Amino acid sequence: MSNPGRTWWGNRFLAALEGFTDSGRLQRGRAYSSDNRILEFAIVDGIVTATVRGNVNPYYGVYKEPKYKTRIQMTPLAKADWARAIARIGSRADLVARLLMSEMPDNIESAFAGTGQGQSHSLLPRNRQDFKLTDCSCPDYANPCKHIAGVYYRLANQLDQDPFLLFELRGLGREQLRAALSKTPLGHALHGLTDTTKPEPVATESYFTRPEPASASPDYHAFWHGTKRLPRELPALRPAEVPAILIRKGGDYPPFWDKDASFVGLMEELYLRVREKNKTAL
Description:
Layout: H1 8-20, H2 23-28, E1 38-44, E2 47-53, E3 67-74, H3 79-90, H4 93-100, E4 131-136, H5 146-161, H6 165-169, H7 174-181, H8 187-194, H9 220-225, H10 245-249, H11 263-277
Helix pairs in contact: 1-5
Protein name: SWIM-type domain-containing protein
Keywords: Metal-binding, Zinc, Zinc-finger
Organism: Thiocapsa marina 5811
């Protein structure tokens, strides 16, 4: 598994945990975030559940390798607070555009500032009160134990790949988010760009393109020599409104990318090198 906390929101999640827990204990639990330790991991209705393989420890009377049940739940936001936050997000094109490309806007918290009655809410955790539930079936009295800490790191890794998971952890599922945003001024654009409905297959007589007879004999001389010379200078191209939108839509760390470096940044460097190398080819 790749290192968690590669995105700013994943790193912010881990930094918040270190702020109100024993950072040393949290780091010791990092080894428990691997697939070899976490046997089962799921997020259902905002509740994280995991089965973590423990160690044999005769000192505590543990003579058989145990499997501990761990649960983590962030404090969900009230419906009224979500309504105010969604209204702010849906009225700002910068927030909606970044979310559509599976990126967490660095100013996302501005949509949650002052949403509570007399208190300030946030999407990312800030203190212990942002976690409603953290428990483990192991005999360790400390919280977090190394099993909970391992699940924290696994959760941070999941957040790196899917920033929308933060909304689910706060009580608003992905489909609920889309349905709520569809009622805002920018909702139609959101629905059009995130529609994952697959078109119905169309029947065809052949899987291959059938040849079509030529209407006239080809002019081989014109084909090989051309009717006119190619221009020595190409006209300046207008840059795209959103460059490399297909690559950016997957985010800096798409699911298939397990490197620490940003996938978007690497592709930007690659395209720049190709463009500079072939600038004088024609």
